[in-house]
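Supplementary Methods S3. Input chains for the assembly prediction are listed below.
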Amino acid sequence: MSGAALIGNPNTGKTSLFNTLTSSYEYVGNWSGVTVEKKIGQLKDKSGPLTDLPGIYSLHPLSRDEGVAAEYLVTDSPSLLINIVDASQLERNLYLTIQLLEYGKPVIIGLNMIDVAKARGLAIDTAYLSERLHTEIVPLIARTGVGSKELLSCMNKTEEKDLSPCFTIHYGAVIEEAILGISREVNSELTFSGLSPRWIALQILEDNPAVMNSLALTEATLSRIRAIKEDALKQLRMKEDTSSLQDYIRSVRTEIIQDICASAVDQSNRKPHTLTEK
Ligand code: GDP
Ligand code: K
Ligand code: MG
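Predicted structure tokens for the full assembly:
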């Protein structure tokens, strides 16, 4: 059992929270093949292990170091994701959030840095956000420990109920058909992976190298998948001005995030940025 994992953008408070939530280290070392620190601890209430993942802005890695989190999702198949989100940078943080919701395992959003958001005059409607994303949201100030008890109790409830997210983006007919085709290919080869075929299909459509390498699909399957992708891009270009499937998928997500943030974040008291807040 690989338990729960903390995942989020860099500098959102993951390690601060890891230190608050865990009592003892189970493992400290490096992720295999890279010089990125790997930390696993035992939760204070003994409910299981917690892994502190390296910070990323998206599951699509731009370097081998950044591939650690995506590889972890494929190979370790964690039962619960704690997505740490910087409340003062909601729009930027939600891109990863959407990819994590698509992963299909239970996700709790730890909405951290609410002190910073407040100081900047940003008010976040957490009830609305929770409703739009179909997931639990726990407000936090990881630096001082505010919200950590609530987070632990939310984690236990979620593990008991095994609430998987029902947040789904509809990417349009062309992409949806490609998702189905790739899911079928993936399903026939990875019968017991326990991973969501839809999530895998999206990662494949986005050319995520960390996920592709970890899956190690056969050349025959890969070649059928390439044909599905080429066909999808051809069809998509008849309707949309897009350079790649990856760009198109990104643009659909970005539009939804902007729509969510337009209602979830009240900026009417927004103060100008200063450099000394964090
Ligand atoms: P990580 O990169 O996600 O592991 O983030 P860290 O836990 O290392 O935190 C990054 C910085 O933000 C550190 O200086 C923390 O003290 C600070 N920090 C973390 N949580 C909060 C918070 O809720 N409020 C404020 N003001 N600072 C925080
Ligand atoms: K850091
Ligand atoms: Mg850290």
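The chain has eleven helices and nine strands. The pocket of magnesium ion (ligand 3) is lined by residues 14-15 (CB under 6 Å).
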